[in-house]
# Entry
Amino acid sequence: MVILAFETSCDDTSVAVFRDTVLLSLVTVSQIAEHAKTSGVVPEVAARLHANNALGALGEALEKAGVSLREIDAVACTANPGLVTSLLVGKTVAKTLSETLEKPLLWIDHIEAHMFANYLERDESDIRFPAVCLTVSGGHNEIYLWKSMFERELLGETTDDAAGEAFDKVAKAMGLGFPGGPIISELASEYSGEYRGMFPIVMLGRDSLDFSFSGLKTAVKREIDRRMALNVFEGGDPDGVAATLTSVRSQTRQDSPLPRLGLDDMREIAFEFERTVTEILSRKLFLAAEKVSTKNLVLAGGVSANDFLRKTISDRAEKEGFDFVCPVSKTYSQDNAAMVGILAYYRLREGGTAHSEA
# Structure
């Protein structure tokens, strides 16, 4: 069975081709350079770039896979959630191809696809049920009880910002680039001090499985403002910030003034912030597992690419006898069409269809 998959839920145009569970090709066109100019995704700009990139990505994916359109057995596409204008581009292309080729079209749920990214390059038996799955990205933050392959129950979700969004906003507050996650993580890895617990670990109650990152984000912004006030300078370059940040930060906004934070300040704030977010996420995940009495843990979503989060959960899981899986590649953590295609395969194999377009 040859499956053609599309993912355009936000700012990456991605196309994948599968033969059953084998990924033949994955082509993802990034929009980071465009959105770095505004330190965030502008929906109208993202949609225009998807429209410009979709057919080129499709042609490249087919060529790399060595597959023609005539050989496609099914088409799959992310339907929701996501940016409406971005989703519309992918859905239009997928629907047009489905009707032209007279092949079935599967509408895929974006969050469920992130969960299924854990099946990529793995045996089906590697995912054990019931499991608790933490899905964490820029636009969503949930904990699910994953009862069986196609049965999940929402246990908790964010009441405001998602963790990935908080990373982006903290990076922006420090005058750095977009997306914020990789930049914050790199700065944090360069800090040599001890964790001091500078920021609040917001748990929303002892038994709550919901998340809130708005208070943490505000606390970080206050600390940034406090240090900026102490470090105000007239000209010059304190601590060699400009030179040292050049490698990061190829993604640093080129049209913004030099950040008024010393490099040591940036490193410490990034370190404390990343560890605070990780503490919240990991505590909630293990609390959920305790509540539903399972030893199976799954991590999914864009923030699952964070090395410190992966290691923290993995180390505790190993110590306490949990089975833990996360995407085998950071590429599969990010928005990509491979996760759409693998979910479509298992849906078709079971004789079902994906979520409705609505």
About this structure: The chain has two domains: 2-122+332-349, 128-327. Residues 233-238, 240-259 have pLDDT under 50 and may be disordered. The two ends are 26 Å apart (CA to CA).
